[in-house]
Every structure is written in C-alpha cells, then in structure tokens.
C-alpha cells in the first residue's frame, strides 16, 4: 500500500519556540543540549577552515602575507555574522512549521501556502534533501580525519596511522548507532562547552601578542582582499565557506530545542568562541607564516597536544553523530512526504519519538564514509569536496524562505525579495566559488545528491502514476457498500480492516477477498493513512470516523510528517468515538502488489524498472505501520506500470 500525501487545512497549534514556555532550568538544559547537538559541525570547523582558506589565498606558497591573513579572517568573521547570525539565527528560525525546522519542514510549509502550484516547491525540497545526504557523508569523514591529523604534530611517525585510526573510530561510531543516542547525548553538551572554552582560551595569548589581528573586524579588509585577488579571491571564498558549514543544523534542529535556546547559545557562547579562535589562528600565522601546516593545533603548547587531539576527536565524533541523526530524521520525513519508499525505522527511546535508527540508511552512510576516507586520505583533499552540498542546500533554503515570507508571513513580494535577495546573492556566490572545486573532489556530493534526487523523483512520480492507474481500475466504495447491504454474502464473526490509499474506492484486498472467499466480516473498516503537511497532529484530530452502513465504516488516521505511524495504538483512540476496537478479534487485510513494466507508461522504461526495484526494497507495510503480524492477511495482486 502506498501512503497518500494529503495536504489538509487542519493545523496543530503552532509551537511557541519551546524556550518561552519552559522554566529557567529547562531553558538552560535545552541551551546546553543545543550546544552539544546543533553546533557540533560548525564548532569543529576551526580544525581546517582557516588553514584551507589561507592556503588558497596564498596561491599554494608555503607562507601567507599579513594582508592575506587579515583578508581571509575578515571574510570568515563576516560570513559568520551575515550568513549564520542574520540569515539563520535572526530570520529563518522564525520560519517554523508548527515548531519544526529543516528543509523538508520548510518545503511542506511553503507548499501548503502555494497550494496546487507547489510542484516547483517539491522539486526544491527534493534537491535540498538530496544534498543533505552529501553533507551527512562528508562531515564524519572530514571532521574525524582533521582531528586525528593532529597526531602528526606530536611525532611524524604517527602519519601512517592517521587513516587506519580514523577508520577504526568511524566503524565504532556507526556500530553503536543501533543502541540509540540518548545516553551518549547526555554528555554532548558539557563536552562541547569544554571544547568551546578551550579553543577560545588557547587563542587569547596569540591575540594579546598580535592585537593588530583585531583589524579583521573591519569589513573593508574582506572587500579589499576580494578586489585585489581576482580569481584567487573567488577560489578562497570556497574555502572560507568551510567556516559556516553546519549552519543548516541551527534550523534543522529547531523542533528539538526551540528558538530561544539555539539563539542564546549561538550569540553568547558559540559565536564568541569561534571568532576568538579564528583570530588566534590568524595572529599565529602573522607571527609565524610557516604555522600554516596546522594553525589550530600549533596554538597549543607541546604538552597539551595529546589531550587536544583526544578532545578534538571526541568533538568531531559528536559533530558526526549530529549529522547521522539528522539523516535518520530527514529520511523519516521523506518517507512520510512520499519522497522515499518505506524503510525499517527503529525507535531507540521510549521517551523521545525523535530518537530513531534506520538500519539501511546507517549501512549506506557507513559504506560511503569509509570509501571517502580510503579514497581521499587527508582532510585537505576532502575539504575540496566539502561545501557544494551545503551551499546548494542554503540556496534552496533561501528560495523557499522567500515563498514563506511572502505567502505565509503576508509580506509584499518586493519586501520579501528585498529581505532575502542579499542572502541569496551571498549563497549563490559561495556556491559558484565551491563549484570551481568540482574536479578536485566536488563531484562527490554532486554525484551522491544526483543519485538521491533521481531516486526521490522516480519514487514520487512512480507512486503518482500507480495511484492514478489503480484508481481507474477500482470500484467506487459507496456503490459496493450499497450492493453488499442489498445482497449480503455469508457473514463471519469479527472485524476486518482493509488498508487503502484512496478512501473513495473499494480496496483491492476487499475485492479479492469477496472474489475468492465469498464471505464478509460482521464489521468492516476501510482504513486510510494520511500524512499531514504539519510535523505532528493532536490526538483530537488523529482519527476521523464515518459510518457508511450498519456493517461498513470509513476511518482516516492522520499523522504528521515527523511521526512514525502506529496503527493499533492510534485505533485505540477510536474507542472514544464509539468503535469497540479489540486487536485480538480484528484482521488487517493488505494488498501486496507485484509490479510489472507496462508497454506504455508515463516514465521511460529504465525509470519504470527503477521504481519497481525501489518498490520491492520497501519495508513491509505490516512492520512500518506497527501492526501485529499475527493479525495480518496479505492478498497478492499483479499491477503493470
């Protein structure tokens, strides 16, 4: 059964940003949690961002001039201020979909506002979702490699162990995913707080020795650098963007922590720590241009190198964990929005529905990450591949943000464009700069994103064609019920629940049951699962019942796109509406369709075959909807597409 994406007018009450409704103690806990989860990626960028940017600005020379360092520093600082602080912290955190953030949540919000003309919005959502998977693969590989590379500064003999040790850490990281992140997450916040404190404190002596580095706050240094360096300046911009990767996490994790905790953590802890650390690295490079080898670790005295490599490794694992968890959440949203086939979703926490584990996604991410580490073997090589997926996502987010500001916030199109245009221009500039690195490794996220986009588009298009074709062949439910009530077949005790994606047509399983068994249960329920364009649904709006006749009723269960559908648990709510639901006297009838390619289809033959392959790989509907397997009867049908 394919789940229909039904856009309805019903909305849950908007969340109030979490922080506003919580006590001070809870607010502090949310802020601490956001530091551990939201800022892991952007918080570990100092390990490689300034180094790569200054190397690019120095045109490959062994040393960097003071003016080049100040120019790069100014670009990084203002990128943090404009892109992260203004675009995400100030503006986009307000564009929540009933308290939830992220590109697919924004897509659903924009699509609901546009209505029938939302095909372009869906395409933008597919692009941003596909590019996120590129980020989810590159972040663990790049960040863990960059942390372990600090070992080379302790002794050169460690150089041969960097890649093997990175692989060991990544294997362990992906191996523990099935146990859930609840226990580990409790330590994320405090560890990242220590990380931000240490990287800021270590930079202070360097700034004190060379206070002229503070001139980087003057944006004229950034403008002058870009004007005088031409193509080199443009290439450098691609490396500068490494400092703001992870900004999307602020928006994606909005629903977990709320607006105010995320904003407060950024403005008072994360941004100051990052700015001070980048200034410290810049001061070190002004004093010793040869420190470009690894300015982050060279700020620390020799005795502190081993503890810092250990702390950096833990911090990068936390950053990787946040991205992996984000990939699980994005996949669940994509499944609910009809962009992917059903995958097995395991809940790793009884208290928090957002803590999930998807074995198939975990395996695919693991294989891709390991392959990248083996192929590129250094963080500098991987840095060339990084950035394209994130900048692409940011461009798409800005475009959908314009639609939301215009249609949802009710701004005039001119005012909305005036607000978003500067950020969109910056994002497109960063994207263009990163596209220069396509042949150096940038093809990796583009290829990965292209494959995911093709899969998402094929699944959505194929599901739509299959739905339309099935509807033409199906019998109107109202006519069938009238016929059965007029001339009823043999009755058997119990309740039969027939799952269907189209509540107006007789389910295939019901038609085949009548054809082969020639009997009908005493009570029959036509059950439809709807996915709303909102993240969650109130229990009061969860179940909709309609009595069609004495023996037939139609039930619609509605779930938000961030919820995992649990049919038996939800049907228990129907007891309050008068249905005496007893799982032990109820049989669930599902139609299992065997798809065959048709001679003439709405898609090319290769895409038909791809859709059929995806359909066969989909997780069983019984497991996905959490129906007890002992209560399920599957009826097989053959359908051409």
UniProtKB/TrEMBL annotation:
<dbReference type="InterPro" id="IPR053951">
    <property type="entry name" value="K_trans_N"/>
</dbReference>
<keyword id="KW-0472">Membrane</keyword>
<dbReference type="GO" id="GO:0005886">
    <property type="term" value="C:plasma membrane"/>
</dbReference>
<keyword id="KW-0769">Symport</keyword>
<feature type="transmembrane region" description="Helical">
    <location>
        <begin position="416"/>
        <end position="436"/>
    </location>
</feature>
<dbReference type="GO" id="GO:0015293">
    <property type="term" value="F:symporter activity"/>
</dbReference>
<dbReference type="InterPro" id="IPR023051">
    <property type="entry name" value="Kup"/>
</dbReference>
<protein>
    <recommendedName>
        <fullName>Probable potassium transport system protein Kup</fullName>
    </recommendedName>
</protein>
<dbReference type="GO" id="GO:0015079">
    <property type="term" value="F:potassium ion transmembrane transporter activity"/>
</dbReference>
<keyword id="KW-0813">Transport</keyword>
<feature type="transmembrane region" description="Helical">
    <location>
        <begin position="385"/>
        <end position="409"/>
    </location>
</feature>
<keyword id="KW-0812">Transmembrane</keyword>
<feature type="transmembrane region" description="Helical">
    <location>
        <begin position="442"/>
        <end position="459"/>
    </location>
</feature>
<comment type="function">
    <text>Transport of potassium into the cell. Likely operates as a K(+):H(+) symporter.</text>
</comment>
<comment type="similarity">
    <text>Belongs to the HAK/KUP transporter (TC 2.A.72) family.</text>
</comment>
<feature type="transmembrane region" description="Helical">
    <location>
        <begin position="68"/>
        <end position="93"/>
    </location>
</feature>
<keyword id="KW-1003">Cell membrane</keyword>
<dbReference type="Pfam" id="PF02705">
    <property type="entry name" value="K_trans"/>
</dbReference>
<feature type="transmembrane region" description="Helical">
    <location>
        <begin position="361"/>
        <end position="379"/>
    </location>
</feature>
<feature type="transmembrane region" description="Helical">
    <location>
        <begin position="153"/>
        <end position="175"/>
    </location>
</feature>
<keyword id="KW-0633">Potassium transport</keyword>
<feature type="domain" description="K+ potassium transporter C-terminal">
    <location>
        <begin position="493"/>
        <end position="641"/>
    </location>
</feature>
<feature type="transmembrane region" description="Helical">
    <location>
        <begin position="228"/>
        <end position="252"/>
    </location>
</feature>
<dbReference type="InterPro" id="IPR053952">
    <property type="entry name" value="K_trans_C"/>
</dbReference>
<dbReference type="InterPro" id="IPR003855">
    <property type="entry name" value="K+_transporter"/>
</dbReference>
<feature type="transmembrane region" description="Helical">
    <location>
        <begin position="113"/>
        <end position="133"/>
    </location>
</feature>
<feature type="domain" description="K+ potassium transporter integral membrane">
    <location>
        <begin position="30"/>
        <end position="481"/>
    </location>
</feature>
<keyword id="KW-1133">Transmembrane helix</keyword>
<feature type="transmembrane region" description="Helical">
    <location>
        <begin position="306"/>
        <end position="330"/>
    </location>
</feature>
<keyword id="KW-0997">Cell inner membrane</keyword>
<keyword id="KW-0630">Potassium</keyword>
<feature type="transmembrane region" description="Helical">
    <location>
        <begin position="264"/>
        <end position="286"/>
    </location>
</feature>
<feature type="transmembrane region" description="Helical">
    <location>
        <begin position="187"/>
        <end position="208"/>
    </location>
</feature>
<dbReference type="Pfam" id="PF22776">
    <property type="entry name" value="K_trans_C"/>
</dbReference>
<keyword id="KW-0406">Ion transport</keyword>
